[in-house]
Design a protein that fits this description.
The chain is an alpha/beta fold and 404 residues long. It folds into two domains: 10-154 and 296-353, Rossmann fold; 157-287 and 374-402, Rossmann fold, CATH 3.40.50.2300. Helix content is 42%, strand content 19%. The protein is built from twelve helices and 13 strands. The chain has an eight-stranded mixed sheet with strand order 7-6-8-9-10-11-12-13, with helices on both faces. A five-stranded parallel sheet has the order 2-1-3-4-5. The chain starts with 9 loop residues before the first helix and ends with a strand.
Length: 404
Amino acid sequence: MKHSLRFVSLALVLVLLLAACQPVQAPAGDSGPQTYVLGVAQPFTGPLGSFGTDFGKAIELAVSEMNAELSAAGSNVQFQIASADTEGTPDGAAKAVQTVVQTSGAQVVVGPLTTSEILGAKQFADDNGIVIVAPASSGVAGAIADDNIFRLMNPPDTFGGKAFLQIMAERGYENVVILQVDDVFGNGLAGLIEEGFDGEVSIVKYAPDPADLSGEASNASAEVARLAANGPTAFFCVCFLGDAQKLLQQATVDANLGSVDWLGVENLRNEELLADAAFAEFLGKVNFTSVSASSRSTPNTQPFIDAFVAMHGSEPGPFTNYAYDAANVAMLSMIAANNRGEGVKAILPFIADHYIGTQVQTYLDANGDQAIAYLAVYEVADDGSAFEEVGAYDGATDTLTMGE
């Protein structure tokens, strides 16, 4: 028996039954073969290029599988991808989404990746009825009701912020020094910590995509020295991966930064950070702790990994499965709505709420954001080769559970 799509979903059953019972209507009324364009806007270059490249590969896999299943079902619909590089910036994201839409006619775009990119593309999407399906954006500034942006799979930073605050309280930190990227993501998460932390918070900001972080590292080091003299202090890196690598070039030889515990945001739970032996040794020494996506699985987890490896010859990177899931929800919505943007906006929450993904079930809140949050706490393994799960956070109960 030919394998089905790699998820079990009421929405899929519903959509394929409808497709089998009646022809899908093209916007122009053509009942012959139809091609639906799925837009893709990701940072294929820049500091987030490794994430964007893998996201693009996952979307390619989702489209390939969907096309095979539609052909087997006798549907006259096939999908093709139109993509553009956001370069990891708000302006780049706005241009990428506009380019994809104007050159291909796409009504739905998977991406961009970060919240700042999402907000950069927001006005064009809202003004032109384009639906944005974002697989990884989590910044609190993106939580907006009744717009054309849906943020699937990765829950808003309100959940991660609560988990970090509980870790800080459990460990007895009295002070926190935050080094944060000066954008909507960094400002939002740092603001959550500043508001919820009982002790003193010192914030050092840096501009996005810095050439180096030597000045900011020096400032953070001075703040650590000042606050550590008055009580237990932690350093919190609210940084993107490439920026953290630049920071570590300074931190590994800084006595102050090496004298306190480190915390880091979700994208820093990445083994690229451990590829440098000096970085790995340092992060182990400072008890580096990250709150990131849980390692929990669904029946669709391993089939996705196997298919990704078979198509691309490599393991999927962090959060790559979210792009795969977002693409599937987008395509199912396009089929159900006959590829009309306004119809996709109307039906997507229903389909998302009935979609079982490769790691967690999608379920959207009133802002169109992921409402189910299962996060994990990670530390560097003793040998420095990987991150290991040492705790869990359940967003439904706001409960942090640490291992023995």
